[in-house]
Every structure is written in structure tokens, then in C-alpha cells.
Specification:
Layout lengths: L3 E5 L19 H17 L3 E5 L15 E3 L4 E3 L11 H9 L5 E3 L11 E4 L2 E6 L5 H13 L3 E6 L6 H4 E3 L4 E5 L12 E5 L10 E3 L2 E5 L3 H9 L3 E5 L2 H4 L10 E2 L1
Parallel strand pairs: 1-2, 4-5, 7-8, 10-11, 13-14
Antiparallel strand pairs: 1-15, 3-4, 6-7, 9-10, 12-13
Bound molecules: citrulline.
């Protein structure tokens, strides 16, 4: 169970955030409203939400998931692969020190964004992507081992981050799309397939047995609901324009 989440209010500079999507610039006012709704959804799952101030220096800083990996035993500050995102870790480090006794860090030449890391109990799947390299993944596995946790790497071909295409919903249920549906490492799970036309909805989050699902993906909603979860739809259309999904907007612990 999670008790807390960390988020960061989007800054106006978000409209210049990194993106490969061809969906136009985000509407900032709408993004602020959606962010507030996202916080309410987390609160309705019983979480205390710690909200960091907007940081205009870093357009992508609202995507807090990428700058730290939080486990039951330790927090690991990452070294984002996107050069424009490296400075985001400063504000996060000081906050995490207040909540975690054990802190580790990923250092250059290693790069790692925690959108590439999926927790399944005490095991962590680490996607090798344009943002996370072998050295970053290797350093993470060494840190995890120190605390009795394990890690393994997954090669990505089609998506930005591992969790762009796969989401663990506990109880052995894995939401998966595209390349991950046939990935050998994931065949031991009960796969809940997401249609290609709804691929954005592969990025959902399990929070205390409820599942947050992006608004506007009826097939995904039905699939998750049929698996026995209470689902909460959250509209994050403006963050999608920056390749950001539901998981990217918070760190749950
Ligand atoms: C980026 O490209 O870094 C941001 N615009 C989106 C980050 C999304 N984060 C995630 O998937 N974990």
C-alpha cells in the first residue's frame, strides 16, 4: 500500500517541454486544472500528496517520476538521459532526504529515467531506452542488491520509456501493449492487452487497489474494470502532448 505521493505543479514553460508527439502545444490553464484533478484522484485513493512548487527553469519538471526511484528500502536519485532534465534532481533530493533514511544516486556515464523502471514486488524491470543506458541500469542493479532487491534489463524498441507500454497492476496482472505483449520476460504474468489504437492507456497506475486510467480509452477502461479493479478516469490530455502519462506525474511511496 502507498501512503504518500510527490507531484510538482507544471510551470508555464511546460509548453516548451520535450515531445515526439504531433498533438500541438499544451493548453497551460487546462494542464493546471488537470493536474489539480490528478492530485484529487490520488487523494481519493488515500494518499497524502506532497506538492513541489512549479520550477520554470525545467519545462519537463512536472514529470517527477523520471528523477527518482522510490522503493520500500531506499530512494534512488536518477541521472536523466535528457540533458535538459538533469537539473530537475536538485529539488527532489532535498525533499526525499526528509522521507528516506537510505539514499542512492545514479552517476554519469550512467543515465536513467525512472519511467523506465517498473516495480513488481521486490524485482525491478529496467528498460534500456534512449534515456536509460547500460551503465545506468547496471548502477541501479548494484544499488538494489544492497537492499536485498533485484533488477533485470528489458530492451525497448517502440516506446519512450518502459512504462509507456506496460503497467503492473499487482495480483500478477500486467497491462501491456505492442512489443511487450510478446516479450518473453512478461509471459509469466496475466497479460491484460491494450489495443494499439489505445496505446496511451497502457500507462495506468495502481494505487491501493484502485487503478487510475487516462480519460478517453473505453476499451482499456473495460479491460481493467473486468479484471476486478475500481477504476478512476483522469483527463491528462495536455500532458499527453508532451509524451507524459499518468505514472510520470507522481512518485508513489
Ligand atoms: C520527456 O520527454 O522527458 C517528457 N516530455 C515526458 C516524460 C514522460 N515521463 C515518463 O514517461 N515517465
Amino acid at each position: 500500500m502507498f501512503t504518500k505521493a510527490i507531484v510538482r505543479t507544471p510551470a508555464l514553460s511546460m509548453i516548451n517541454g520535450l515531445t515526439s508527439a504531433d498533438l500541438g502545444k499544451p493548453d497551460f490553464d487546462l494542464a493546471l486544472k488537470q493536474h489539480a484533478e490528478y492530485i484529487r484522484a490520488l487523494e481519493s485513493c488515500g494518499l497524502e500528496v506532497l506538492c513541489l512548487e512549479a520550477n520554470p527553469e525545467f519545462p519537463d519538471s512536472t514529470f517527477v517520476e523520471d528523477v527518482a526511484l522510490l522503493t520500500k528500502k531506499c530512494a534512488i536519485i536518477t541521472n536523466p538521459g535528457a540533458p535538459s532534465r538533469r537539473g530537475e534532481i536538485k529539488g527532489m533530493r532535498s525533499l526525499l532526504k526528509q522521507h528516506f533514511e537510505n539514499m542512492e544516486e545514479i552517476h554519469a556515464p550512467g543515465s536513467l529515467e525512472a519511467g523506465d523502471v517498473m516495480m513488481v514486488g521486490s524485482h525491478f524491470y529496467i528498460g534500456l531506452s534512449a534515456r536509460t543506458n547500460q551503465s545506468g541500469a547496471g548502477q541501479l542493479m548494484v544499488h538494489l542488491q544492497k537492499y536485498g532487491l533485484t533488477g533485470s534489463v528489458v530492451e525497448l524498441k517502440e516506446v519512450l520509456h518502459l512504462k509507456t507500454g506496460v503497467a503492473y497492476l499487482e495480483r500478477n496482472n500486467l497491462l501491456a501493449c505492442g512489443e511487450f505483449l510478446i516479450h518473453p520476460d512478461f509471459q509469466k504474468f496475466n497479460l491484460l492487452p491494450i489495443e494499439h489504437s489505445e496505446s496511451y492507456a497502457a500507462n495506468c497506475i495502481w494505487v491501493n487497489d484502485k487503478v487510475l486510467v487516462p480519460q478517453g480509452y473505453p476499451l482499456a477502461l473495460q479491460t481493467i474494470s473486468n479484471a476486478g479493479y475500481e477504476v478512476l478516469e483522469v483527463d491528462v490530455s495536455e500532458f499527453r502532448k508532451l509524451d507524459g502519462g499518468l505514472s510520470c506525474l507522481s512518485l508513489r511511496f
